[in-house]
Amino acid sequence: MAGNSFGQAFVVTTAGESHGPANVVVIDGCPPGLAISVEELAAELARRRPGQSALVSQRDEPDVPEILAGVFDGATTGTSIAILIRSVDPRARDYEPIFDKYRPGHADFSYDAKYGVRDPRGGGRASARETVARVAAGAIAKKLVRESFGARIVGYVKQVGALTANVPEPARVTMCEVESFPDGTPNPVRCPDHEASKAMMALIEEVRSERDSIGGVAEIVATGVPAGLGEPVFDKLKAELAKALFSIPAVVGVECGSGFAAAAMRGSEHNDVFVPGPPIATASNRHGGMLGGITTGMPIVLRAAVKPTSSLPREQPTVNKAGQPTTIVTKGRHDPCLLPRFVPVAEAMVAIVLADHWLRWRGQR
Amino acid sequence: MAGNSFGQAFVVTTAGESHGPANVVVIDGCPPGLAISVEELAAELARRRPGQSALVSQRDEPDVPEILAGVFDGATTGTSIAILIRSVDPRARDYEPIFDKYRPGHADFSYDAKYGVRDPRGGGRASARETVARVAAGAIAKKLVRESFGARIVGYVKQVGALTANVPEPARVTMCEVESFPDGTPNPVRCPDHEASKAMMALIEEVRSERDSIGGVAEIVATGVPAGLGEPVFDKLKAELAKALFSIPAVVGVECGSGFAAAAMRGSEHNDVFVPGPPIATASNRHGGMLGGITTGMPIVLRAAVKPTSSLPREQPTVNKAGQPTTIVTKGRHDPCLLPRFVPVAEAMVAIVLADHWLRWRGQR
Amino acid sequence: MAGNSFGQAFVVTTAGESHGPANVVVIDGCPPGLAISVEELAAELARRRPGQSALVSQRDEPDVPEILAGVFDGATTGTSIAILIRSVDPRARDYEPIFDKYRPGHADFSYDAKYGVRDPRGGGRASARETVARVAAGAIAKKLVRESFGARIVGYVKQVGALTANVPEPARVTMCEVESFPDGTPNPVRCPDHEASKAMMALIEEVRSERDSIGGVAEIVATGVPAGLGEPVFDKLKAELAKALFSIPAVVGVECGSGFAAAAMRGSEHNDVFVPGPPIATASNRHGGMLGGITTGMPIVLRAAVKPTSSLPREQPTVNKAGQPTTIVTKGRHDPCLLPRFVPVAEAMVAIVLADHWLRWRGQR
Amino acid sequence: MAGNSFGQAFVVTTAGESHGPANVVVIDGCPPGLAISVEELAAELARRRPGQSALVSQRDEPDVPEILAGVFDGATTGTSIAILIRSVDPRARDYEPIFDKYRPGHADFSYDAKYGVRDPRGGGRASARETVARVAAGAIAKKLVRESFGARIVGYVKQVGALTANVPEPARVTMCEVESFPDGTPNPVRCPDHEASKAMMALIEEVRSERDSIGGVAEIVATGVPAGLGEPVFDKLKAELAKALFSIPAVVGVECGSGFAAAAMRGSEHNDVFVPGPPIATASNRHGGMLGGITTGMPIVLRAAVKPTSSLPREQPTVNKAGQPTTIVTKGRHDPCLLPRFVPVAEAMVAIVLADHWLRWRGQR
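Predict the joint structure of the above. Result:
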């Protein structure tokens, strides 16, 4: 009701502020018997972790998960799972000088308008710090959908600023291509077009040196999803996925399949032709894996537009709580481009939606 | 759970198939004392109605609403409201020859995959016919948010094919400009840029004559919404609005504020500067009225990309239920461009989200 | 949210007032492929119908159901089912003289306190008329649980006033014993102890002739329910069943298994001993078919206490809306004892809970 | 969905097993600005704590709560609240010899039937240990309803075995009378009839010495609740309260107001007469504070029947997981009578329901 839960059958509930003692996630409805280890959770959290490369925030959070409930003898029991992730490097004092000021592009003002009060340390509940809980839950969801029906969810950076990657076959991109260069060194920008990656890295360094930030687009692809997932009318899978992605901080646009490009197309060129099975498939995938909001068995293809980081290490004009003009410099340790760390969060949300709809489908069929 | 309800405090539940006897909507949670007449419902339904102009489907549905419950002496009682809209022109026989074939771009195949069975008459539950129930509920939601806090929700066609309207000030567009030309004649394309309207009309006529269809983009603007609506984390208002719009048939993309254009921007150019109040506002509105998923009091600006109509009155290759190749010609009476009739549906969904979050906000504060 | 829906996977939403034009029920989440006919619905509605015997209200409602959606070719499609039941004998004028007065034992006052307004015709939404929608939904739920796992749900009158039936083996009572006497004539009081039935009939006639009413207890038994249904902690099956029964008008107490008698028992006499399987069972059934809120495979046994009808055809002191003393005589056609018509409503609610938890169980396992 | 959450506007989600590392509760929807301290939580937890008197379980759990999120500067922020309670005295080894055996009266068998696996240490998720999380959430709910509208929720033991307390005016019982004897010494049995208390204490000691257990009844009274809370039809306040109480382990019956005694009454003696206001009230309170499931402003009076503790420190026959006959002695440290520690749990659940419906009411009005 108050917005801190997601899903109906695989239900994720989170709590935690940017600079509070911990983030917590409770996952309710996970089937029993799924093997889960702290190491698996930690591996996904490491992909989202600040400080993982020179391109991202240098806040030093090891993000060590502790499983408090719902797992016995290394496997889920079917009851609610609780995971705790303590904060160790909050440095709330960085924010004290600006407690009273509204950071441009942030939720300080809107939270005050909503609640009358707020936790002003680094964005409180509105901080992207909360996504650590999503990634922990997503690690379980990913494993559930992989073990249940072989789903594979891969996200990557498609665009940074005006630089767009060339990814001719989204459904063939591997996690390895996203995370590493051919020589095995980590690819900090998470773009499978390695030429573009280098340009993106240079661009991100450039905006950082100019004390600025830059936006971008991520693409998330889910393959191996059986036909038939999603609900009619309001809970179409495309609608749930759009909500899931739009719920991530800084997302300002979502499209699936052809997306906005479909606006300029004719039906005769947009319709994907069905081809004989089994299994029945389509010759092309402009529909992005869903028709009528229900999966067709073709790869699910989504893109999310992410705005440039709002926190800038430069002086910006703004107002304070009393409505008077002032200026602000945000001193926290921020990402000049959100996209590299956005990828695992987006994957997590897609996994949670698929896990939820898988269980919903099983219930009715 | 099974996808036919929307909202948590203002809850809309619908039922009805394209060629069944009726569509029904139950609205639960509407505050008591809101004056509602059948005429108000009928006025909104008329905007969505097929047969309203030469540009749209010629199916002849008067769409007369009957209020069955929840309204006494012309006003809501606070208990559940039920509205019935009978179908009078189903012509299900148009579909009999294709019961066994999968229409390209439609949900026939994915519904079969999901349920094993389906109502094959004109798309059954997956047909856009179900949006009649959304518009009826939206009429009540619109009135609630208008009477409660003066919200005004205006949608219009922003793009058809490659033709893009010039709408310099979205928050100033009036319903009158959208619905009519300056001489008072109806504007069947619902675009406030009247020059663009004429080009769009010509384009739609052209694709129709070529037995084809065309996509487009609608923009929906809500003004008068107070700061503070929306929930943190998963139920951010932007996420709920994205889900609401993506739940409408044929929507393949949604963006708010700067949207996908933000990907190419720097933080220093994207951040909207706060300006002193009261009330505190922003000098620009690239954030589209929401920060951290919570309203700022600035106009909410959304865009939805709509794919070209999948039903085409021409032969298309496809497969039948057995997976064998065949061809199909859809004979129903379809819109060559969905956008003009999409506008009132999109407005309805935005109104329902705002009504829901208004009640949720009141509950907690 | 606003109380007019029940269930999470098999979701029942209702609307309709005592003297409005119709009652409506939408059922969302029913699996596809379940054969449903109007005749099956009508048969259950006939058991609840007023006017069915001399013992009950003489309001003449045929209660003819119309299926508007969700059923095609005689079977459910998996999408939302809508059923309409028009009212034909409202006689709202009976209530006009008392629109302004608070009937003792009724919700007139509390609804005014809640909503500020209310539909005063015969109780409006608070009337037991709404249970017609529950019985229609329950007919589908009953069929679902019978076809899915052979569940049989039988309710009967256990007590009227001080008269208590002797039902030594609740799990062996048949619908036939409840509905009819051995000679095949209908048993209007729905008690399988036929000696007690006659005394109950006489008692009900006596209170009616004295322009009074009488309370009672119904027992509802579900057999054939597999072990493992129900959820931990808050959604224990016993909790959901208690809510379901307590949601029916006039219910003031619910117990399962040993119920209140357990308060005076020792653990050594209350614990049911497990006996070797397969299937594992218990030698006795003081636990009423659920342990830890989850079914054991033993019969589910519930009892509901129903208060005496509040509407009395005699003068009672009360106050009017202005808070001034007055007197009232309710002229509607009321049941002197609610129990006989309560039985099918209670069965319906038990069926809905079992259907819901069956689907929830399937989703997670 | 999977049963570990309760409420719609004040939503409580819990996780934790009897012998796991911790119990966790997340509370979503609490209004901002409510002062909450760890001490207030600890005070309520102390009332539920094992080891608090010679009458109850001697497991030594200090139950120290840690607030992880949702509270800043000593007050709620409106975002989700997380509370952690670590376990310090699990002694899981007590249970190892019986991991494979089904304890009579416990959920071991039904959990195995449901999930196929379970945490066998002390009942796992089915243990009454989970109620620690309810009490922590209830402490916040109690404070919310007290500060919002002056509600006072007092529970006490009404019956132990055949011993029934004489409590002539439930609405006048004070917490002090329940918790202490007139001389200020703690009343370990929590019964405001102090003569009865002593007999109850003796009875509990007697059953303990006989290695047995005994059942009982608790009465919970809420005063100061305004007229108008509760929802129509399915979410009647009586139904929600019944579910809340029935969700507590060992509850087998719930009644409100006259309860099962109403079955033997006539309408003319049961109806409570309205008396002129302001505020309008009733001369008697057989309706227990709710009519039509909505509060009247009169005290809410509920009773819950609690079965005798199923764990007995004596040999009992049972079966093992393979279905073979065996015997069992439960060695954990158990309460010979659950009632004294049940009282704060029942109060917590009543508080949570009232908090939830208060917020729901505010949302709609």
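Chain B touches chain C through 46 residues (CB under 8 Å).
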